[in-house]
Design brief:
Elements: H1 2-15, E1 20-23, E2 26-29, E3 38-44, E4 50-63, E5 67-78, E6 83-94, E7 97-101, H2 109-115, E8 120-124, E9 126-129, E10 138-139, E11 142-148, E12 157-177, E13 180-195, E14 198-209, E15 213-221, E16 226-235
């Protein structure tokens, strides 16, 4: 259950942050930019039973000649909508390419801090998706590591490592959720997560829509059976 929650928080928050398009001096995210815009996601088990919810709210937007950055708040909720944790994160576009720091993609470090009193450090790569992604495009992956007790010359204990591999654009298609029908880019990738002695490999398929972000995500076990799925249910 802990691994499933980790994936739901990390990759719902993460891959929802998505594709960017750009023309000279301007970048357009597949993510809302209007302050106050809120999107709510429901997270389900394979049988369609809701397990939790997630809400993303735009806080601010800043622009420069070739860059655009959006700051947002992410809230993790139980199935009844009660907020259990929250954090802030940023999405940005630099020189026409979308960039996301994996440490800011919804990784729920607050829940870890509840269980560990020692210092925690997060090191992560940027995930990039170029402007105008096309079917068949191969996309670079990235890694995120969480270390406990680092500092004062000590390397610390590696608690978690998450690798995103084999990312590619699968198709361009329409998809319908309770929030509406959207034109989407479909992206698939492999996730390898090491949490202490536990290693889990999954496959994720995500759908993103212009100015919205992630519309749906499906996570599959290594044997091909669905583990969980999430979809956009409300938007205002």
């Amino acid at each position: 259950m802990m691994i499933r929650v980790l994936f739901l928080s990390a990759f719902l928050m993460s891959e929802f942050l998505c594709v960017a398009q750009a023309t000279a001096g301007y970048c357009e995210l597949y993510f809302p930019t209007k302050e106050g815009t809120a999107m709510e996601y429901s997270n389900y088990n394979p049988k369609g039973k809701i397990e939790s919810k997630t809400r993303h709210t735009v806080l601010s937007k800043s622009e420069s000649e070739n860059n655009l950055t959006v700051a947002a708040k992410g809230e993790s909720m139980d199935k009844k909508g009660k907020v259990v944790s929250e954090h802030t994160f940023k999405v940005k576009c630099q020189n026409g390419a979308f960039m996301i720091d994996m440490s800011a993609i919804g990784f729920n470090n607050e829940s870890l801090n509840d269980n560990y009193e020692t210092q925690m450090a997060i090191h992560s790569d940027d995930l990039e998706i170029p402007a105008n992604p096309k079917v068949g495009d191969k996309l670079a992956g990235g890694s995120l590591t969480v270390t406990l007790g680092s500092g004062a010359g000590s390397p610390g204990l590696n608690l978690l490592r998450m690798d995103v591999l084999e990312r590619s654009v699968v198709s361009l298609e329409k998809i319908t959720t309770p929030a509406g029908t959207f034109d989407c880019v479909k992206i698939s990738y492999t996730i390898i997560c090491k949490l202490g002695p536990i290693k889990v490999q999954t496959r994720s398929v995500d759908w993103y829509s212009k100015n919205i972000g992630m519309v749906r995500q499906e996570i599959y076990k290594k044997n091909g059976k669905m583990w969980s799925y999430s979809e956009l249910t409300k938007m205002k």
